[in-house]
């Protein structure tokens, strides 16, 4: 069994990007600038956004963190988005999800200019992804594709089961892996909360992408020998033996599944760091595109 070391691979990617930034500086070019909007003070979201900003600093990007209070209105957020859309200094920006109830997520994602949508969530970019046109790929699926590619895991003709149909992971993942591309060409099945005989389907899988948001849902009896397992889940599970009172768990029951798997991602240190690296890669791409225009 081989651990798919997302931490190591993401560091490789970040070092590659940092080298490109150094070359930009040497040529007197402007370095990439990523902005992030965080509404409210959800603990997990704060952790993710701070990690994104810290990663920017480490590789030489400029970054701006905009923190808005929980009670921010939809109009106020849309106005902030419009400022970033028109601010020529910003190459790309994200609005961290989930948003408070008073704000319509779809309206917000549609307000972000597609050319600055480094999360790849705008309908224009989702459509371009579905048509296999150049775009910003959503960071988590993009990170998984990159991880499969760098570990040279064969996907062509393989049975892939994607567990979950969310707009930010399951759906794009299923589209990308069925496409004619690196880490693609697979036969993809999507299962979700209404699927019947789920374990019969996962047991046929050569590769499983678990993104259902239920901790330790996929267990050893649900997979076949030598399966490749990508765990997208990350939840805090109460654990009295830990100083902070919790441990992080994925959607995969690691202990039982890792006994049968040929490759598996850990939680933490698997998909999470890859997501951040690919967001940076999209921001670099945006800067390069803007330099060309
Ligand atoms: N919330 C969970 N994952 C993501 C992500 O990739 N981008 C944003 N903006 N919010 C998220």
Main attributes of the structure:
three-stranded parallel sheet, six-stranded parallel sheet, Rossmann fold, alpha/beta, binds guanine, 293 residues, globular
What does this structure look like?
Helix 7 links the parallel strand 5 and strand 6 (187-191). The longest helix is centred in the C-terminal third of the chain and has 22 residues, at 271-292. The model has no long low-confidence stretch (mean pLDDT 97). By secondary structure, the chain is α/β, with parallel strands linked by helices. It has helices spanning 6-26, 43-59, 74-86, 105-111, 123-130, 139-150, 170-178, 198-202, 254-258, 271-292, and strands at 2-3, 33-39, 62-68, 92-95, 159-163, 187-191, 207-210, 228-231, 235-238, 246-249, 263-264. The protein binds guanine. Guanine (GUN) binds at residues 94-97, 119, 139-140, 168, 275. Homodimer. GO terms for molecular function: methenyltetrahydrofolate cyclohydrolase activity; methylenetetrahydrofolate dehydrogenase (NADP+) activity.
Task: Show the helix and strand layout.
Elements: E1 2-3, H1 6-26, E2 33-39, H2 43-59, E3 62-68, H3 74-86, E4 92-95, H4 105-111, H5 123-130, H6 139-150, E5 159-163, H7 170-178, E6 187-191, H8 198-202, E7 207-210, E8 228-231, E9 235-238, E10 246-249, H9 254-258, E11 263-264, H10 271-292
Parallel strand pairs: 1-11, 2-3, 2-4, 5-6, 5-7, 7-8, 8-11
Antiparallel strand pairs: 9-10
Helix pairs in contact: 1-10, 2-10, 6-7, 6-10
The protein binds guanine.
Binding site for NADP(+): 164-166, 234
Function: Catalyzes the oxidation of 5,10-methylenetetrahydrofolate to 5,10-methenyltetrahydrofolate and then the hydrolysis of 5,10-methenyltetrahydrofolate to 10-formyltetrahydrofolate.
Organism: Siansivirga zeaxanthinifaciens CC-SAMT-1
């Amino acid at each position: 069994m081989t651990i798919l070391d997302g931490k190591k691979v993401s560091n490789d990617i970040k070092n590659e990007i940092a080298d490109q930034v150094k070359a930009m500086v040497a040529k007197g070019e402007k370095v990439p600038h990523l902005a992030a909007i965080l509404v409210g003070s959800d603990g997990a979201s704060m952790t993710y956004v701070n990690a994104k900003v810290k990663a920017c600093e480490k590789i030489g990007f400029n970054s701006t963190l905009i923190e808005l209070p929980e009670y921010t209105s939809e109009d106020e957020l849309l106005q902030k988005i419009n400022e970033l859309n028109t601010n020529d200094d910003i190459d790309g920006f994200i609005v961290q999800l989930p948003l408070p109830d008073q704000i319509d997520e779809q309206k917000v994602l549609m307000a972000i200019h597609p050319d600055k949508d480094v999360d790849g969530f705008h309908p224009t970019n989702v459509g371009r992804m579905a048509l296999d046109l150049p775009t910003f790929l959503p960071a988590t699926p993009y990170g998984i594709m990159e991880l499969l590619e760098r570990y040279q895991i064969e996907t062509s003709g393989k049975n892939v089961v994607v567990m979950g149909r969310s707009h930010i992971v399951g759906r794009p993942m299923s589209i990308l892996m069925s496409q004619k591309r690196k880490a693609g060409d697979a036969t993809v099945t999507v299962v979700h909360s209404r699927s019947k005989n789920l374990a019969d389907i996962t047991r046929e899988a050569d590769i499983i992408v678990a993104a259902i948001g239920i901790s330790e849902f996929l267990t050893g009896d649900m997979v076949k020998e030598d399966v490749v397992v990508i765990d997208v889940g990350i939840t805090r599970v109460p654990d009295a033996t830990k100083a902070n009172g919790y441990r992080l768990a994925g959607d995969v029951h690691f202990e039982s599944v890792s006994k049968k798997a040929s490759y598996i991602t850990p939680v933490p240190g698997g998909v999470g760091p890859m997501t951040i690296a690919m967001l940076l890669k999209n921001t670099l791409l945006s800067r390069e595109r803007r330099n060309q225009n």
